[in-house]
């Protein structure tokens, strides 16, 4: 925890009804984007938030937006524009949960669903409309939606709306809203057209940048594989076999490439699903749900199709095609390494793409090392301390002596040893939680009986919905992982590993 972290929602200026909802949802402390965005938004400032999915940006704009609304006023007072149907639905669900104790109608309108039903919902009354751009334009042109009272406007994932070609429509929509409105713009990246849009359509905005680069990249161990184009499929199969990811997303550049790879992996007998723009909306939703639930271990996806996916359990990102920019790279791998655990990213590059990969490594200020099998990594890894390593690390792209994160699958890197938090306690991550029927007692039992720890070697046990953390005496951490990782608890296979901060 950093000294400056805001550790409570209390001081942000939120109303009791919202605080109550947050508490019931289980958010304990605001995320950085929330801590920084909520106060200025409540004060009425325009805000530009540079942050990605997974940072908590929905609550960052959603809570002040809900607080702004007047429940007595039946007009459309706020709109949220999203690039995709998936994000639209996700945002709507989140806002409804935050509005649990408010009397506010929130309606989602998006393409790929009958417009009639959405028109009826709007007629019945909507104070907040969460929309995809195309469908909102459509509803406006049919006079089912008027924006003359929409004084709180959010552009969510603005860069993706740009990539999808919606930016002119976004500007048209902004022009239809009152000029005295408050505007919040969230975007993972700030390409020039988005900067221009902010300059033209926002008033004296407060800019908040949550630097995902360092954060994201630090929590992900990154490797590359140099492979000729013709050998990629074979190499991928080899890597999947060696890495045995719990859940992986394999990124392809094109729809055709994605469906071809999907077919190939299937032919090799792997359980895989594809997600790309040629699929029907229904099929895409089905895939998203089964992946999110953990029923599908491998997902082959294009960047566009994978937009807005917020997937907690992804252990591996595989860039089957080299991302075409450093920002895409960071965005893709930002999907792993969440929830305090180590994620892994493996990037394929053909020999002539190696200079591009070097550029990405440089831009992202990170180290991407040559891929090794997990066995080789263990061999090279487990250093006693960060700095005392020479001649044992796998080659970095540059071959210089920079830190080799890849060789440290579990390191926290605070100088006190690879995973000790400095007080003789090591935090372990367990990949199961309440949803698997596991409670604190079960974990204590596993630690006592399975790992043969005494109660005083167990510092804490925290069970969350989908995973848990246990803190144990550092000198017993290795034994605990060895004995419990891969064992079964209440009928579920459990994985235990040293958590990262
Ligand atoms: P978002 O970036 O808005 O899509 O949020 C990503 C995930 O983080 C969602 O599952 C949220 O429910 C969750 N989340 C947002 N804010 C917090 C918080 N302050 N504490 C814990 N989880 C949060």
Provide the fold topology.
Blueprint: H1 16-25, H2 32-43, E1 47-50, H3 57-68, E2 78-82, H4 85-98, E3 106-109, H5 115-124, E4 128-132, H6 133-141, E5 152-155, H7 158-163, H8 167-176, E6 182-187, H9 192-201, E7 206-209, H10 212-218, E8 220-226, H11 232-243, E9 248-252, H12 255-267, E10 272-275, H13 281-292, E11 298-302, E12 316-319, H14 326-333, E13 343-349, H15 354-363, E14 369-370, H16 374-380, E15 425-430, H17 440-450, E16 458-463, E17 468-473, H18 477-484, E18 488-489, E19 492-493, E20 496-498
Parallel strand pairs: 1-6, 1-7, 2-4, 2-5, 3-4, 5-6, 8-13, 8-14, 9-11, 9-12, 10-11, 12-13
Antiparallel strand pairs: 15-17, 15-20, 16-17, 18-19
Helix pairs in contact: 2-3, 3-4
The site of adenosine monophosphate has 12 residues, from helix 3.
Please identify which CATH superfamily of the largest domain we are dealing with: P-loop containing nucleotide triphosphate hydrolases
Gyration radius (Cα, Å) is 24 Å
Total strands: the figure is 20
Span between N and C termini? 8 Å
C-alpha geometry: globular
Strand portion:
15-25%
The description of the largest β-sheet is:
7 strands, parallel
Number of helices: 18
Enumerate the distinct ligands: adenosine monophosphate
Strand order of the largest sheet: 3-4-2-5-6-1-7
CATH class of the largest domain: Alpha Beta
Class derived from helix and strand content? alpha/beta
What average pLDDT do the residues reach? 84
Could you estimate the helical fraction of the residues in percent? 25-40%
* Tally of discrete structural domains: 3
Extract low-pLDDT stretches: 381-396, 398-418
């Amino acid at each position: 925890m950093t000294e400056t972290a805001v550790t409570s929602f209390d001081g942000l200026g939120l109303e009791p009804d919202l605080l109550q909802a947050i508490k019931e949802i289980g958010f304990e402390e605001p995320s950085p984007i929330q801590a920084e965005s909520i106060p200025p938004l409540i004060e009425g400032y325009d805000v530009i938030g540079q942050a990605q999915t997974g940072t908590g940006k929905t609550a960052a704009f959603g809570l002040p937006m809900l607080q702004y609304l007047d429940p007595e006023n039946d007009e459309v007072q706020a709109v949220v524009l999203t690039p995709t149907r998936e994000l639209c639905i996700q945002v709507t669900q989140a806002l409804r949960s935050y509005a649990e104790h408010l009397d506010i109608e929130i309606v989602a309108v998006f393409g790929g669903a009958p417009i009639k039903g959405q028109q009826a919902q709007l007629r019945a009354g909507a104070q907040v409309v969460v929309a995809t751009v195309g469908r909102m334009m459509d509803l406006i042109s049919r006079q089912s939606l008027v924006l003359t009272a929409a004084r709180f406007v959010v552009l969510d994932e603005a860069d993706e709306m740009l990539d999808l070609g919606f930016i002119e429509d976004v500007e048209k929509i902004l022009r239809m809203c009152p000029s005295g409105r408050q505007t919040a713009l969230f975007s993972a990246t700030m390409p020039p057209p988005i900067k221009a849009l902010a300059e033209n359509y926002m008033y004296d905005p407060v800019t908040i940048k949550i630097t995902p680069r360092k954060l994201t990249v630090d929590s992900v161990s990154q490797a590359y594989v140099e492979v000729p184009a013709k050998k990629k499929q074979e190499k991928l199969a080899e890597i999947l076999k060696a890495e045995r990811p719990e859940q992986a997303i394999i990124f392809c550049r094109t729809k055709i490439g994605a469906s071809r790879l999907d077919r190939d992996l299937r032919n090799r007998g792997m359980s895989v699903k594809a997600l790309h723009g040629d699929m029907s909306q229904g099929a895409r939703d089905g895939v998203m749900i089964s992946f999110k639930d953990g029923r599908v271990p491998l997902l082959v996806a294009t960047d566009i199709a994978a937009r807005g996916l917020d997937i907690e359990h992804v252990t591996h990102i595989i860039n089957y095609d080299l991302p075409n920019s450093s920002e895409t790279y960071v965005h893709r791998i930002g999907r792993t390494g969440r929830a305090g655990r180590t994620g892994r990213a493996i990037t394929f590059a053909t020999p002539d793409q190696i200079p591009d990969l070097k550029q990405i490594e440089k831009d992202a200020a990170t180290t991407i090392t040559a891929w090794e099998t997990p066995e080789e990594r263990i061999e090279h890894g487990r250093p006693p301390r960060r700095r005392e390593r020479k001649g044992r690390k796998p080659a970095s792209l540059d071959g210089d002596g920079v830190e080799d994160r890849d060789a440290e699958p579990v390191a926290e890197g605070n100088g006190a040893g690879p995973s000790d938090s400095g007080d003789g306690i090591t935090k372990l991550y367990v990949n199961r939680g309440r949803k698997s029927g596991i409670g604190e007692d079960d974990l204590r039992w596993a630690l006592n009986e399975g790992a043969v720890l005494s109660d005083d070697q167990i510092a804490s046990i925290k069970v969350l919905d989908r995973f848990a953390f246990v803190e144990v005496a550092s000198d017993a951490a290795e034994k605990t992982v060895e004995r419990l990782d891969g064992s079964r608890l209440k009928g579920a296979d459990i994985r235990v590993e040293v958590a990262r901060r």
